[in-house]
Amino acid sequence: MITVSSLQAAEQRRIIADCFARTGLTLEQLWLRYFALGGDVSEIDLAAYLRGVLPLPRIQRDMVAHAVNERLDELSGTRRAPYSRDGGENSRPRGLLAALVGLLEGAQRVSPERLPEIVTAAGRALNLELTVYLADYEQRLLFPLPGESASGRGPLPIEAGTAGRVYRTAGTTLTEEPGGPRLWTILLDGDERMGVLEIEATTDADLHDPALHTQCQWLASLSGHLIAAAMRYGDGLDMTRRRRRRGPTTELLWQNLPPLTAATGDFVVAGGVEPAYDARGVTFDYALSEKTAWLAIFDAGRDTVSSGLVVSAALAAYRSARRESQDLRGQERAVDKALSTQFGDGTTVRGTLAEVDLTHGTLRHVDAGGEPPLVLGTEHEPATVDSARRPPFGEGGPGRITTTRLQAGDLVVLHTEGLTGARAADGERFALADSLAAGTGHLPPEIVRRVLAAAKSHCRNGFTGDAGLLIARWPGKR
Which is higher by pLDDT, 202 or 6? Predict the structure, then answer.
């Protein structure tokens, strides 16, 4: 059936084509102008539209009209091509470029609490309604950020439902719902999962369009980055992620952690700590470069009031030495010296320092009274790496550096005794190896989330020692 809107679109196309003939532009020149405005169809598709062979969505038609009119303005006095929108309708720029620019400009010098409305406004440039959900720190629920689009929405479980599946797989999913299709995509800060983005169409947007899926992923990545940046200078968004109070020690440890996930090329590293709101003496760190990955985990226990300060001093000494390009031996000496100098004899921290040659897959590590690394391959059970354990950092001399060759796809796992020491009510210890094996096939951050959740469930959140976990996946020789 021919509708009024289709007749209007056909008439608009006829006038645009007529006006294009008056511009003196080649098709390529018109396409370049159209693309600069945010258009996303190819030059071939644009030619087909002008010939009446291929229809275009309203936003794309208006961008073509705008590109033509800009040229007609240059020639002044020539008839202008019409837009499909009414004269009184919002005439702000539309399309992907307008959405991204609007998000960047809107986020400048804005309070964190206003970011949800900036994201919503960016979505409307694509005829989309966006709702941001952030994961809580235990990664159990996704909470909608306050705003107009979040009205009436509540938290969503990560272990179930479409939103949870998108978060777990870091993917994009389209669902058909009574109110129309809905798109869900992962909200990322780099490679760290922040939450998910719920996307609904308002007018002409087609959520079944694969190109629109890609555009929404770009929008979600930029939104996640801006949200994470805003959390560094304000508390409004961070409070959405908190379900309990943190004490000063736990706050210090969380602030000292690196991003929970990072990647270079195919190499991915992810970590986490439990209990999320009461960690007292565990931290981890890493640094990635083109050829090398450095990994470290430290455990000062949780039995003294100074555990947080002690483990933070070990972390700071390690980072300082690493950033001075010192090798494993230099890093080891720096941590020993910092503890003995700042806290005197008898203050110790258990831990492991490691480095991975990303070109050849060589793992070298020093074990200072901590748990030796585990290596989990794609076709075998987790294996404990041979280690020559030295006394904890702060006492004893240098330890022996142990070398291990990794296979393509291997996971390197650093952890603390608080993880393997998590006990059920009957005294049964948490089976870390089994939990890691069950996570094979998932992304490293999802393995970390699953293992820590399993340990928490096993001991009913009654950790006797802090559970720290750091996992890295080596993809194979470059």
Answer: 202
